[in-house]
Specification:
14 strands; alpha/beta; MCP/YpsA-like; homotetramer; Rossmann fold; 3-stranded antiparallel beta sheet; 457 residues
Amino acid sequence: MITEHFVNASVTPLESLDTLSPHEVAKLQDISQGGLYHLFRQCCLAVLNTGSELDSTRKVLNKFREFDIRITHKHRGVQLELINAPASAFVDGEIIQGIREHLFTVLRDLLYVGDELDQCCDGLTDSERITNIVFQILRHASAMRPHVKPNLVVCWGGHSIKRGEYDYTKKVGYELGLRRFDICTGCGPGAMKGPMKGATIAHAKQRKDNPRYIGLTEPGIIAAESPNPIVNELVTLPDIEKRLEAFVRLGHGIIVFPGGAGTAEEILYMLGILLHPKNQHIPFPLIFTGPAGSEAYFETVDRFIKATIGPSAAQKYEIIVNDPHEVAVKMRAGLEAVLAYRKQTDESYHYNWQLHIPHEFQQPFEPNHEAMAQLNLRRGQPDYILAAQLRRALSGIVAGNVKEPGVMAIEQHGPFELTGDVDIMKSLDELLSAFVDQHRMKINHEEYEPCYRIVRA
Amino acid sequence: MITEHFVNASVTPLESLDTLSPHEVAKLQDISQGGLYHLFRQCCLAVLNTGSELDSTRKVLNKFREFDIRITHKHRGVQLELINAPASAFVDGEIIQGIREHLFTVLRDLLYVGDELDQCCDGLTDSERITNIVFQILRHASAMRPHVKPNLVVCWGGHSIKRGEYDYTKKVGYELGLRRFDICTGCGPGAMKGPMKGATIAHAKQRKDNPRYIGLTEPGIIAAESPNPIVNELVTLPDIEKRLEAFVRLGHGIIVFPGGAGTAEEILYMLGILLHPKNQHIPFPLIFTGPAGSEAYFETVDRFIKATIGPSAAQKYEIIVNDPHEVAVKMRAGLEAVLAYRKQTDESYHYNWQLHIPHEFQQPFEPNHEAMAQLNLRRGQPDYILAAQLRRALSGIVAGNVKEPGVMAIEQHGPFELTGDVDIMKSLDELLSAFVDQHRMKINHEEYEPCYRIVRA
Amino acid sequence: MITEHFVNASVTPLESLDTLSPHEVAKLQDISQGGLYHLFRQCCLAVLNTGSELDSTRKVLNKFREFDIRITHKHRGVQLELINAPASAFVDGEIIQGIREHLFTVLRDLLYVGDELDQCCDGLTDSERITNIVFQILRHASAMRPHVKPNLVVCWGGHSIKRGEYDYTKKVGYELGLRRFDICTGCGPGAMKGPMKGATIAHAKQRKDNPRYIGLTEPGIIAAESPNPIVNELVTLPDIEKRLEAFVRLGHGIIVFPGGAGTAEEILYMLGILLHPKNQHIPFPLIFTGPAGSEAYFETVDRFIKATIGPSAAQKYEIIVNDPHEVAVKMRAGLEAVLAYRKQTDESYHYNWQLHIPHEFQQPFEPNHEAMAQLNLRRGQPDYILAAQLRRALSGIVAGNVKEPGVMAIEQHGPFELTGDVDIMKSLDELLSAFVDQHRMKINHEEYEPCYRIVRA
Amino acid sequence: MITEHFVNASVTPLESLDTLSPHEVAKLQDISQGGLYHLFRQCCLAVLNTGSELDSTRKVLNKFREFDIRITHKHRGVQLELINAPASAFVDGEIIQGIREHLFTVLRDLLYVGDELDQCCDGLTDSERITNIVFQILRHASAMRPHVKPNLVVCWGGHSIKRGEYDYTKKVGYELGLRRFDICTGCGPGAMKGPMKGATIAHAKQRKDNPRYIGLTEPGIIAAESPNPIVNELVTLPDIEKRLEAFVRLGHGIIVFPGGAGTAEEILYMLGILLHPKNQHIPFPLIFTGPAGSEAYFETVDRFIKATIGPSAAQKYEIIVNDPHEVAVKMRAGLEAVLAYRKQTDESYHYNWQLHIPHEFQQPFEPNHEAMAQLNLRRGQPDYILAAQLRRALSGIVAGNVKEPGVMAIEQHGPFELTGDVDIMKSLDELLSAFVDQHRMKINHEEYEPCYRIVRA
């Protein structure tokens, strides 16, 4: 078997990505504050660290602290020199083609975001500007397929799930693939990988031309959630909110598998949008599903939603237990409704412009102690606003558990403090306790200390 | 979940297969003796019966006795009307694309073999003629890829293997696919399906263009071994010997997974050829492999080979236990030797003309009682001849267990009678007993009665 | 500028044509009576002699009598060694790609016709058999495009026409190409080349994918009418009648430009078929057209047809003078009628099975003195039969003027003798005299001696 | 025949260009000062006015003053409504596909230039910035083909040349195409169209995949020089200097056919660059060629160059008369030197970064009376500076003859005044007089009044 080790290699770009200017190469090599080197190195490491079981950014960065990437500045084309790269990206010393592609898409996106978007879209509101930036990044990454009927299913769920749950995501992916649906996930293992594997087999049987396995990531999460090389369109959005917006504007329906707090956060994001009055009539299939034995996760989430936002919110999703075929059949019906609506309203198939995403959901949320303390987890505000507040609370908790700056902030300053209505706070606590009980939190369950403290106000 | 049921559907051909003449359509509709209808119906049923667990032709034919296929004679193109077809071939009422392709490749091959080959190749010996017919069938099916470096790995093994063995074949297929090898199997489930599934995932990661999953079948076996829809090149050879010749002339290396008597038969076929003096210097990688826990199968086979044909025969193969990575690395080395040899000897990459296949291995063996009784299982003949005799003995036993006419002959006339040297007969008996003990025979193990009787002469 | 000279070169096949068996290579090398060498050499020479002004087979063969073609028998693929090949096929020593393709299509067709067709189609009448053989040759050459709406326009006309006429054929080809029609001609210069050149420019403007420039030839005519390298599908039919049948079954409409006796012969062939009672309702656009100044040719032909077969025959065609745009618009309308009819009658788009071609038009006509003498150029027989007889008369005259055996027969035995009704014979004589006057016969006009003698009976 | 008329039509975009944001659509519809409507309308009109004989922008604009283009704002994709569009862009009421592509490339380029480039390339000098902007526009238009060996031949020359000259450009294009070279011109008829037509025929014969016919244009010139629909990559650069820079950085060699003052201007541009000391060792094939009978043009230019810049400048080009084959053979040799140099110096194949283009050649030159008066046409400055000054002088003269603002300025303020050394001024006058004598100026030769006046200083 293979011994884990490090590999040095030179990697040349794909032809379509091999037209950098010397100016761009210089920016990628620039180790100064405004330069892209550090971000580029971190993202490349994540891409190379495929199949890794490490789910903490810090652990990954630490393990491969000797990793370096040098951009040989050749006019004939750039060449990446990889030093002490993770061996898992290579087969017999040669880089896996899918990973090679990922390296250069990272480069493409980092350069594009840095260079060309800062001044875009004069005359628009900030919210419109963000929507346009997401659009432009996706278009620049050739992620738009105009005139293709709605068929892109977003799969969310935990990256660290049980074997049976993982196998279930493969079966759902297989049923989706049999119906020629494309798959979009957030990159990483678990529920982000299983549906793609299942769909790959089904697409082969259906001889699907150009099947799409889209991975949407962002620099803060990529290190802990390496894209699976099956992903054949990797787009690195600049922050988590733009990544979420990309999911809901590019995707035509969403399936949520069991996960942890991060998955619950995504559910709240989606619910908050769908609950907004402007989106009331826009069809958007949203299915929660898992295998027999995993019912508890969605029961927990369902109870939390009903208790906090209210029972009407539950009309926006459907829970299906242990029936991949049913999931796919329901998704097909949902996508047909999406198609009909887009035709009727002259909406494009490739980007859901009509969907209103409140500004609250677009603003990057920096989950530091101050921001967490200022969250307003109270009733008496529109339900979509409450959903946004709850999502941020969960977002902060995920950060405190997984993301480097969050973990460090907790170590330094102690747990976040959250305030709100008593019953909402109680529901939140129950939700998180249930996640711990269900081993849904990426933590040492025995000596788990929550990264938050509920301060009932 | 899906209830098993029957489906009626109209299927139009792929464009490339949609140029039949009225004369050809008439032949496919012809239910008379010389007509193709019955053969065509049987093969189509097999193709449609994908994923079936039934491994007896008779059971399949019986279950779908109401199945019918009508060829609507339209000048604009043929159309197949399927009546009472197995539901497993359909998704939401629409035929799986891979199966649609298979239907029309069957049609292509049956027409070609019937029509154009009878008079071919005047001036050649019978052996050369058979080799040329196999070549022409493969070429007509576009299965030749000139100038592509040797990369086609044939996988043999049982279609009814244990879960762990099946998973192992997927892992091996994955490692082969990571190295961009194409896969060729005999169609059906088990060891014929696993490597293709594994390779499909790896090929997706490697972005392999036009990956090949070749299935070679023949009318007598197809009903019990439905091609997996992943198979994207299905070729139906006219008989089992031409199918075997297609494997060894088209493939560049062979991996054998655990199986039963049929697999042992294929091993003997291959060994017989490689042992022929004319083939002495032709490199042909041959690897037997299985997961931990399945060592017994190859130990049994290895012991049998050494005891009957002799220890030198064991130099022609390598046994690797529980190491998919090693299997792939060894196969890569083997294929490089094949490449070097073909370059050196000006042999084509797409068809192994040089390999000498003795006439004994090409003649269809009709495993009836008389033919079985006439087998000469004795020492004192060239080792490759003995291998041929042993293969036929096993072939008859597989027929008696699985194939319709064989099973019926046994029911009618009692077990086959085999004669030969005492120790060879003993080895054969031990081999088959071990297979029964290892549950390697597709039989009711509790009330198993062998379909053969050893008559030591 | 280039000095005319000879080139030696090695040419490797296109991949799709590089799967010959050793047996097939041997046949191509076989210089014995039944072998293909002589035919293959002659056809290859013709293909290489592109752009030649020599329009006599004998002159071509004589000029390149040192030409030889050797087939290097390599297992890895055949290789053609060209010795003393015409320099016009090469650019800076490298063969023009289109010509390289032609060489291997010739090889493909000669092998196919020789090998696989002799025994085909048992149970059919001779006429049906011929139709099926033409179908199979075209299918084997991948010339069928099922499901593509009728868009293949056959262009007939002289290969040795005036500059203004040639430019006019380009303009018509351009207008056809603007409407995305594909072009099919008989190979060679003049009216066979112009429409393709014009269409090439228009197809480029229309971004037509896979434009088709089909050349149908046969061994007897190819040497004098080298295919233009623009031809991207060259099919070599075994004789002139099968070539004509290929034109009318594959093509969807026909445009006839000015030519000579050969063109008139093709017109009679087509008219004879369209006049057959069984074909009465089958739409088949047939347009005669030429530039201002060339009206005389079609006036002559039109007069001849009305005088011999009768005025009703003139309803089958339309004459358009000097209006490429009108020709294309009329052809478009005609093809729409063809499409409607094929839909209505369930006829395929790719092969006109319904068209009845009387056996008289299918039988190869060997234009020797005896056969010419036996022609019955009299009234009192069905008009399509008379058309067939007149066509043969013209066919013999073309042979006597252009084709090697015909020319030699005339030299040896004197002119052919033709007999028939006085007024028909007179019309024929007037037709041919007018062709001589219009310089439409490929002869030395000053000392022209007709190769036929009219014996009024 | 077709009567010239106007057409109304709806045109949908190509898929790859159909992902506009509502914000972008709004900009194209914006008729205000900063909006793109007027520019877009003018460019679209030019694109539609294909094959026009009108070579004055004003005449074009006047003839089609009723032309309008409306952008239907549909989310599903934009749709262009063309009102009173030139009929020459349509075949039987359907727009020619190549022209449809051109419309949307114009849209693509206008949006890109307007939106994303203003703020690019911080930290670079102005000259570097211009070079990077040209690079980015070309890259955004997918005009880069990394790793393709240098094969792009730029053809310059007059758009209004004699028939024999036009035919000659076709022959040269044919010889270039036979060698698989791609063609890049400045759009329009004459020498910009002929080489593409010739190459199209040759590329068809050579079966060249994806032949490139690149047209580089700019808003000021496009109306008078409609792109030929053969152009399959149209890029609209923002001004004439960036268009010239695009020619020399994208192209690998240049052929100049006879033209007028504009052609002489391009020659001076190229010479000025090649004469710069930094470019001394960079190979750049530059061939002037024309048919027999057109020698005078290059003799005139050659004499002018030697007399003004000096005889050494003549070493940078080669004049070949009436020998298309020789032109192509010399170009092939030149391109091989380019390839060798780029390999040796690690220069990309797709963009000539190394070539130093002095800032003088990059700055847009506004040929108004003041700027023309300030030109310094004197000796005593580096030869490349003098070349730049002379080019501007010619540029102004071309503008005064052809371009709308220039013509109007002349009408208003009288001829431009030019000053410089006596002998240089004399040479310039002789050059222009010779052009008038040779009918090389797009003017009414009988009552020609020069748009400049030489003020010897």
